[in-house]
Amino acid sequence: MVSTYTEAVNWIHGRLKLGVKPGLKRMEWMLERLGHPERRVKAVHVAGTNGKGSTVCFLRHILQEAGYSVGTFTSPYVEQFNERISVNGVPISDEEIVQLVQVVKPLADELEQTELGAPTEFEVITAMMFYYFGKMNVQDIVIIEAGLGGRLDSTNVIYPLLSVITNVSYDHMNILGETIEKIAFEKAGIIKSGVPVITGIEQEEALYVIQEKAAQQKAKTYVLGNDFVASDIVSFEHGEQFSVQTMFANYPDLTISMLGAHQIKNAALAVMAADYLRVYYSLIIEEEALRNGLAKAQWLGRFETLSNKPTMIIDGAHNEAGVESLVETVKTHYPDRDVHLLVAALADKPLDKMIPQLARIAKTITFTSFDFPRAATAKQLEELCEHPRKACCDDWKQWLTDAKNSQNDRDLFLITGSLYFISDVRKFLKN
Predict the structure, then answer these.
(1) Is the domain of 372 the same as that of 282?
(2) What domain count does the chain have?
């Protein structure tokens, strides 16, 4: 029997070798054995290609400021594994992880002997989360981030108060499909009968898929730019200012410290979600709580400044849309700086689309790799780049150490690519 935290986490991570197995049958089997804890969870379900974590973060801070106790389920983690299951932004304890594994592991072992086969790492963590919030520590509300897609994602066993679909772009195409419509179809799978859906999707073809699914499920849709709008946008050095108009209220001159036009959209989704919960579920959310929640929201590893002298920023832009947002944010907030990029990415990402975009803002661009099963080599990345000042580097820690010694105020050191890599870099720089 698992008795220590290290054993518990090793057992969970040991399931990574099972890969991704879309489908809900194994989840349903485990949750039935656990007494259906998911039925006791008051949830907001968040899916989308990018912006899920930030949207969860904004909404969590708003609800917390309003006095509610809020559970969150997010992935991947940046500082420590436990943060995937958190209460009011505080990761659950090592002891609770051990307790949860002691509950779920016997079920996983039993399930492995059936025709359904062994549950994956993500399925095990999702079952732990539902048991925690359904039986061990029931919260006022739990915001649940879908893992991959939506329709066949392990989290898609809930009947939430509200569904949020942030956006749709190209990622995980080997699993979700090669077209925007197919990817949108997978995201639309979280829409439940009669449960309203709030979305920031902009492409017409993707939005059509979402609205068609919502109509079939008799679920009201609220579309950013149509049913609620963000306007009066002003970027300043350490944040963004904007107004949000929903059909229920007007919120002028809101501010966030997360940089980028994409973060304004994510914040607007959170405002609309909070407004819906206020109006239709009688949650007491004063305007002051909404303002303060947005202003306080921080999300690790997303255009996060780790040093000001010299300027060092990390950003987990791990797909085409993420890189696009990163490039625009750099152009808006640091138009006159010499950008030195350090890039490490996973081999199964659309690297041929991502790297040329990054090269456009770089004075120098250095490629490296890191200890992760799906990581691309530095050479693989470099071969996709035409930049005249490109390089490969085996020792990214040395690159960072050298960068830290820069005395030039124009230098901006930007580390990006895989969120798993960003997590390693953050730990190294923080220590």
Answers:
(1) no
(2) 2
Both tokens of residue 253? 């001159």
Residue 73 to residue 136: CA distance in whole angstroms: 15
pLDDT in tens, 60-96: 999 999 999 999 999 888 889 999 999 999 999 999 9
Measure the CA–CA gap between 392 and 323, rounded to whole angstroms. Answer: 20
Alpha-carbon gap, residue 205 to 413, rounded angstroms: 38
Q: How far is CA 39 from CA 36, 42, 158, in A?
A: 6, 8, 7
Question: Do residues 345 and 373 both lie within one domain?
Answer: yes
Same domain membership, residue 311 and residue 283: no
Task: State how far the Cα of 404 lies from the Cα of 87, in Å rounded to an integer.
Answer: 35
Percent of the chain past pLDDT 90, that is, above it, reads 79
Domain residues for the domain of 184 are 5-296
For residues 312 and 399, the answer to whether their CB atoms sit within 8 Å is no
Q: Are residues 281 and 420 in the same domain?
A: no
pLDDT value at residue 174: 52
Last residue of a domain, one of 296, 314, 331: 296
Q: 296, 331, 366 — which closes off a domain? A: 296
Write the pLDDT tens digit of every residue in 20-49. 888 999 999 999 999 999 999 999 999 998
Beta carbons within 10 angstroms of residue 352's beta carbon: 10
Question: Under a CB-based contact definition with an 8 Å cutoff, are residues 6 and 106 in contact?
Answer: no
Which residues lie closer than 8 Å to 303 by C-beta, 6 or more apart?
Answer: 258, 259, 260, 313, 314, 315, 326, 329
Residue 231 amino acid letter: S
Q: Are residues 211 and 132 in the same domain?
A: yes
**Residue 422: CATH number of its domain:** 3.90.190.20
If asked whether residues 265 and 308 sit together in one domain, one would say no
Q: Are residue 205 and residue 311 in the same domain, yes or no? A: no
CB atoms within 10 A of CB 19: 8
DSSP 8-state secondary structure symbol assigned to residue 221? E
Q: Which DSSP helix (H) or strand (E) runs through 165?
A: strand 162-165
Among candidates 51, 89, 281, which has minimal Cα distance to 273?
A: 281
* 64 and 86 part of one domain: yes
Residues of the chain where predicted confidence (pLDDT) is lower than 70: 170-178
pTM of the model: 0.92
